Structures are given as C-alpha cells and as structure tokens.
Amino acid sequence: MCLRNWRTRKTDSENRPAAVFIVQGSSVRVPLGLFNLEQSSKAVVVDGNITTLDDLKKLTIPVTPGAGSAQGQSGTAGATGQGAGGAGAAAGAGAGNAAASVQGGQAGVPAGIPTVKLSDIADIKVVGSAESVSRTNGKASIGLQIVKDNDANTVDVVNAVKDKAKDLEGQFKGMELTVLLDQGKPIEDSVSTMLDKAVFGALFAVIIILIFLRNIRSTIISILSIPLSLLIALLILWRLDITLNMMTLGAMTVAIGRVVDDSIVVIENIYRRLTSSGEKLRGRELIREATREMFVPIMSSTIVTIAVFLPLAFVTGMVGELFMPFALTMVFALLASLLVAITLVPMLAHSLFKKGIKSSKQHDHDKPGRMARGYQRILNWALSHKLITFGSAVILLVASFFLTPLIGTSFLPDQEDKYIMVTYSPEPGAQLETVEKRALEAEKYILSQPNIDKMQYSVGGSGNPLAGGSSSNSGLFYVEYNKDTKDFENVKKNLVEGLKKQVSTGEWSLMDMSGGMGGSSLSVSVYGNSLDDIKPVSEQILKLVQADKDNFEKAKTSLTKAYDQYTIVADQQKLSSMGLTAGQIAMKLSPVRERPVLTEVTVDNKDYKVYIETDNKEYKSINDIANETVQSPLGMNVPIKDVAKVEKGTSPDTITRNDGKMVVDVTANIVTSNVGKASSDLQKEIDKIDLPDGVEVKFGGTTQQINDTFTQLGLAMAAAIAIVYFVLVVTFGGGLAPFAILFSLPFTIIGGLVGLWIGGETLNVSALMGALMLIGIVVTNAIVLIDRVIHKEREGLSTREALLEAGATRLRPILMTALATIGALLPLVSGLENSAGIISRGLGITVIGGLVSSTLLTLVIVPVVYEFLMKFRKPKVED
C-alpha cells in the first residue's frame, strides 16, 4: 500500500516528512510497563489505534511549517534512536514518537491549528511492489526452487515434480514450465554409465577365467559368484535403508573383480585336484577337502580386505561422508563372496563334476606347466641372489617417486558440466529499475550466443544467497549450453568477458559451481588486528597470485571493491544553534536510497505494508548533497554544508572478522591440474613476506581440503596396514610370515604412480581410495602364496623347496584373481564420456597399475623376504 500523488502547496516536499512521522508515531502500540495506580500495579499501554484502511484515511495531519517541523524533530529523534539501538530500541523509539505527539498537542501547537486528513493530501492505493525480477529464455517468469528432504531420493523427487509440472501445464492455458537445474538427470546418467561399466567388467572377468581354466563348467561356477554376491549386498543395503547411488553402484563396479576372487581360488583348487593323477580322494570327500584347504587363506584375505575400510569410519568431512556408502557396499559384497565361495561353489562343483574330468585332461597338474616352470627358474635365481633382487626392486620404488612432481596433486576429479552461473553485482545503492535494464541488455547478448539451450536470470529480492555481492539488487544468470559444445572453458571465459563489455557498470563474475566436487580454488586468508596491518600484506599476496598466470586466474581480494567514501562530519555547535541533530541530516538523505515502511493495516483480512512513495531523486555529485537543505524547528531551510563538512576517503565493500580478528581473503581460480605444486610454490613466495606483528596468513580453499583429506587418508592407510598385520598374525600364529607378506605393499606404489603418469591423472582423493583398496587386494595374493608355503613346510619340505612348489602351484590362481580384477576395472578407465563421478579413472588406474607391479613383485620379493626372515625363526621343539 502506497501514499502517492501528494496534493499540497509548494511546501509539499517540506510537509511530507510531517505526514511520514505522524503516520509512524500514530500507529504505534507501546507497553509502558507497570504503574502503581489505585493501590495496585497496573499495566499501561499506549495504543495509536491505527489498524484499518479507514483509520489511516481519517488520520489528521498538521499543515503549518512550524507544526510539521516540531513533529518532524520529535519523530526524527525517535527514528535515530531506533536505528542506533536496533530491535531492542524499538519500544523506546515508539514511545518517543508518542510523547512528542502529546506534547505538541498541549503546548507546542496552538488550539485550532489547521489540520487535514491524510486521504485529502495523498492517494492511498494498493500497488504492485515486485521486489525481484525473473526472466527465462527471454520471457517474464517466476522461478521456483524445490529442495528435497534430507532422506528423500533425489531421482524420485525430480520425477514426481516433473509429473506434477505436466499436470499444471495442462490446467493453465499458455503456461510454460521449463526445468533449468535437474539434479536427478546426472545421477541417472551416472547410474546408467556405472551399470554399463559393471556389465563390461564382468564380461572381461569371465573371459580371463575361461582362458586360464579352459573349462566351461568351472568358469560358470566362478562367475555365478558375481551376481549372487552383489544381490546379497543389495539386500543388505536395502535392509539398512542405504540408497542405490553413484557411490554404492561404483563400489559394486569395483567389487566385481574382487568378489570372484574367492570363488576362483576355491574352484581352481578343486579343479587342480580333480585333474591330478596322484589324488587319492574322490567325489564329495575331494571337494570338501579342497574347499577346506583354501578356507583359511580366503577367509583371512576377505577379513584383511574388509579391515582396510574400517579406518574410513574416522575420516571426517565430505570425503568421509562420500566414501562411507562405498566402503559399506564393498564390505557387504566381500562377505557375500566369501559365503558363496565356501557354500555354493563346492555344491555346484559336486553337481557338475560328479563324473569327474575327462581322461584327456588328467595329469594336467602332475607337473608344473611351461609358465610355472619358467617362474620357478626365475624364483630360484632370485632366492639365490637376494641382494640384487631386493635392491633392484627398491631402486624401482625410489625412482617411481620422481614421477610425483610430474603427476601433481588435486582434490577431486574434475567434472565438466555444460552449464554456468554468472553473477552481476551493481554499484552500491543501484536501484532495481536500473539493474533490470542492464539485465535485459545482458540477456539479449547471452541469447545471441551459439549453443545456448536455456537461460534464466533473477534480479533483486532480499539478496540471492547464491549471487552474493554488495547490493540486494544483484543478478544471477543461469546459462545452459548444448552438450556438444566444444572447448567449454574458453566458452565460459568469453561469455563473461563479453558481458563485461556489454554492461560495463558493476562487476561480472563466474560463479564457482564446484562446491568442493572437482573444482579447484585458491583461498589465502590474512588475519590481523587492524585493516592497516593486513591490507598491505593482502595486496602483496594478490600481486604474487596475479603474476603466476600459468597457475591462477581471476585473482582478487575481499577488499577489491573499495569505493570512494564521503563522510558528512557534523558540526555539533552549529547544529545546536539551529535546533538540528545529525539524525535529521541522515533522515533527510535516507529516503532517496530507501523506501521505509510506515505501518501495517488490515484490509479484507489481508495485511498490507504502508510506505511513502518518494521522488525518484538522484544526486549527481557530492555538491548536490552538500547543498541539500534540512528544515529547522523555526521553519528555516538550512543547507547541510552550513552545519557539516564533507571529508573524502575510501571504504572497503566488506570487512570480515573471524575469532575477533579482521580477515582479508585473497581468492583465485586454479587453472593447473597440479594444485598441490601451485599452492606449495605460492606458499614459498608468501613465506618471504615480512609480516607485521599480529598478522597471520593461512591457506584455505582446495589447498586446505587437499592437506586435510590427504592427511586423514594417509592416517587411514597406516591404520589399515596395522590392522592387516594384526589379522595376519592371528591367522598364521606368528609375526615373521605376516611381515614378509606386508613387503608386497610398498611396491604397489610403482605401478600406481606409473599408471597415473601414463593416464594423465593427478594424485587425488579417488586415487588415494584406490591405494587404500590395494592394501587388501595385494595382501590377498601374498596370503594365498605363503599359506601354501607354510603347509608344505609342515609336510617336511625345506623353505626353498616349499617356496618353489607353492610358487608353481599358486601361480595360476594368483594371476587369475589379479587379471580378473584388472579386467573388471578396465571399463572404468576407458574414458567413457559420461563421468562416473568420484569413482573415476584415477581409482581404476591406481588399482590396475598397483596390482600389476605388486603381483609381479609379490611373486618374487615376498618369497625372497620370507626365506630371509625364516633364518631368524626359532626351531620348533619336537615332542
């Protein structure tokens, strides 16, 4: 509701404040507290009793300059007090206004003072007051943001909203609904991509098993463990109310190669004994004994692999939350695979091999094959030349670390979405109408660009939480491009640069849409006790960042927006002589910038805010403000320059405090993939700055995320290794054999780093998760080998003989499990267009590379270390 079209004399502009303060002062309801009346405490309340539209129209306003000034003076004092005191001063402000009105009626205003009804001097109308403007694809629109509950399924909510939207379009003629940001679609795309990769991974694993076993029935038995294990895992997830999402599906994709391992080991042992001419057992007894023989190694292997994920429970932050569903899914799938391997596999083997193996395949395993004999020769040489063998492996390990600077580090894999958000921050005080005109120019420019699918912008309101900026009239532009858009990075940059040329007033910036999910940003915070101390330091850091154009772009500080500031310094002596206050100067100037709400009234059971429609007056220079006049109680128009002086200075757009200290942030986008190196190089340059006393510099942004996450995952790996060692000690009943098994772990680094370097991937969180998984996978192969060695030693073979025999016997299952895991992960690193999110190429490459190097070296290094350590074993006392 608006007061407009004032019908007064030439003193219109001077009498209008009187009406403003009368409305404000008359509509109050002020509790004055308890008074001791009539021998008891009574509550007293001052009620202006202006609640309806009729009350407002009948309100009388004094029209003499003196009365207006008196009212204005009293009201001003109250208003100033309210502004200074905040919400707590509201009652006091109202009381001041009410008291002033009473005094004016009794002493300050003569009887019979001319008055006029408010409805006689102003039109009181309900007007539209759009606080924001939204347009979509060049048409006026209303933007709706729908946020799901925390426990709701994103895809289900999105699909339900789309169905309702179709119904609405049918109900309202001419209405068009456009979906701008659909978070369900990328999830559906990722799920579809992950399922495709899972299917291809399973096919690769089947082919590898078939090549090694060369038996259809054995292959069928092995591969049945894949769907059964995953199905059991799905049932457990369902019972625990864990949704099927990118992380759980990613875990199943990665688990495909691992869940088949236990079944491979069991069926290979059964098949080997069935085809051995020296085997004495037959039928059910043979299968039971072959399964029992492998139970300890596969159980300990599964427990070890599960134990690797336990420390993830202590990883905090986003990474811990993201990877917990991944870890739980892996654990459930591995437990299910163990169950299948010791129950279903022997049962199917007994059913399918009732008639045994054809005679042509007998004696296949009486003697080692050609590959096994070649491996025995290599192993025998390595055992005889331990120093050369181990030294060569260590040299390869050390050499691989030199690849680290070439690989670089980052936080999460980059995900290139074909949409951007651009923010527009106008100069402080810019009116909504002005910003809207600029937004229309920007809209026209954006829609003229190629490959634009959708475009929407919103301007004004209470300040868009996404847009930020110094003005509530900031603008947020959403632009979605065609999926086939090439060189998207340059497209984004060119659009922003074009907008800066099209609308040069204000500031355009590209919003960082990473949210920690793949984007890289620099944030350096300078802390200090005063702005004078931290501003020079922040400017030095800004220059360092701007100079490093190979690594950073769009560098700025939180003080970048520094505006010229004019301070009107009141001369209290002159003001007092005129009967004025500094608050009256502020009130005189403030209506130009704001539209204050006077009161609220009720019309037809609807509440309306009442405000005054001010002249759209703009000052062209500071002289215009200095020449503005303020009316004194005597009716004189006093120029502001006569009672105050103007001082010029600068003012930062925002000043931030943290823990009681002032903070200036230096931010930039990191354009290099090697985030770690860029940050460390900048850190070295910042360390050279001579910081004043009390000034401190801290890194934030992606750098802080990398440091925190890498530290936590590093500790998780150390804890995982300790847990693995404990499990192995319990399994083998001693500490030397487990210690030899752990020597397979360091050499995973060789293949992992080489793989990342060849694949062009950085060392990120995804790669570190792959390294964590490798701890369990690699140890599994070593367990299968050493378990056989220990059994043969107990049968009377020497350590060397046991190592050679176990190596030849366990070579095939070790290679089969390793290659099956690699084959299952190959689709993950194939570089399919649809991103798999965090479960990305980095994880797959790390596991594949580490598995290749560790498997080859496990077959050599672990036996070498084992034979060396057995020299320190205490001989058992014979009974």
Structural commentary:
- It is a single chain.
- With about 900 residues, the protein is α+β, with helices and mostly antiparallel strands.
- Among the domains are: about 1-125 and about 565-650, Multidrug efflux transporter AcrB TolC docking domain, DN and DC subdomains; about 185-400 and about 735-870, Multidrug efflux transporter AcrB transmembrane domain (Multidrug efflux transporter AcrB transmembrane fold).
- About 55% of the residues lie in helices and about 15% in strands.
- The chain contains 29 helices and 23 strands.
- It has a 6-stranded antiparallel sheet, with helices on one face. Strands 13, 14, 21, 22 and 23 form a 5-stranded antiparallel sheet that branches. It has a 4-stranded mixed sheet with strand order 6-1-17-16.
- A hairpin with a 2-residue loop joins strand 16 (about 595-605) and strand 17.
- The termini are far apart.
